[in-house]
Amino acid sequence: MRAPPVCFANLAGVAATRLAALRLPSRPPRHSGRRSAGACGWLLALAAFALLGACKKAPAPPQAAAPEVTVMTVARQDTPVDFEFTAQTQSSREVEIRSRVDGFLDKRTYTEGQMVKTGQTLFQMDSKPFEAALRTARGQLAQQQARHEVARANLARVQPLAAQNALSKKDLDDAIGNEKQSAAAVIAAQGEVDTALLNLGYTTIKSPLTGLSSFARQQDGSYVAATTNGLLTYVYQLDPMWVNFSISENEMLRYRDQIADGQLRFPPRNDFVVHLVLADGTTFSEVGHIDFANPAFNTETGTFLVRAVFDNPKGVLRPGQFVRARISGAIRPNATLVPQRAVLQGAKSHFVWVVDDQGKAHQRVVEVGDWRAEQWFVYDGLKPGERIVVDGALRVTPDAQLKIVKAAPASAQTTAAAVAASQSAAPAASELGTAE
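Above: the chain's sequence. Below: its structure in token form.
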């Protein structure tokens, strides 16, 4: 094959450059003229043959294969939506057990931290001073009752005599006044007796409800003053149990705007269903309902308080637990749901790859909303019937021809993910071993 003239011209120029680089002596040594001329000829020929291959046209790079992707068809439907909030449990009745009288604490009669029943004795105070006060009050009552009897008898004698004008009107008025005064004294003395009886009864401190008891704040033998250190313990009712959570003002306004735009619909009469997720990830067996929402705005936290009530017959829930409250019952009408892996983050917005009828990809900006499990609500940017790329979106370029394949079963995807995780963990383990 003969090379084009242009290549020979290039060869000549390159050969000349190579020869110049050799820096041959301008005057050959004596008796070596023919040898030097032959060496130069051979060098020129070798350079020409070496560069002859460069004149051939380079082969075109192989065309890249179309990326394999899975697609889904966009559809709209009414979709239930849940809201999750961090919540805390609270006893529906948290009662302070206090001393109502001053005195010495004889003994605690319950086991701390155990369930107590209504009417069960929790503490016993020294009752001797109160028994003595009761006897004194009863003695004063007996005195007043005796005086009242004398006054009544005196009035009974004076009334007939006054009617016969045997006694003056003043004597009758005095007798009537004495009888009424003694009757009032009897009532006051009876009140003292009742007070003494109440104080004596207060020395036996009982539980007003069935619930879980707390530890004792005062120990046996302590002097208890009702106005200063009268708190003895707490009793918490466990069934039912309250669960409190807060909704921020921004969330409330966002829900209100979405309802006005038709993007969200609450159940009738806001009859939500509440599920609890415990700290270990398990779901509480009982289902609760919202029974109170504080209409006032908390200026300190910027939230609204919402309370749900749960039956707790087995006492699984305890006061003060942190749980996750999952609120169900709301619906997003005509919602568009796409897998999260189909939505990519661009420089300014989120986008998806839309597949046309020729199987080519086109970038489409979308407006995304909340997450639901592994899916994303898309509020704007997609129409029903359009196809979007789900798996392999990261390998797609604009207007690229795609190879659409079927999605792998969920079990296969799980196995592949596990294998990939193990492979990625292996180098880390080896590096850790090396570091050790």
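The chain has six helices and 20 strands.
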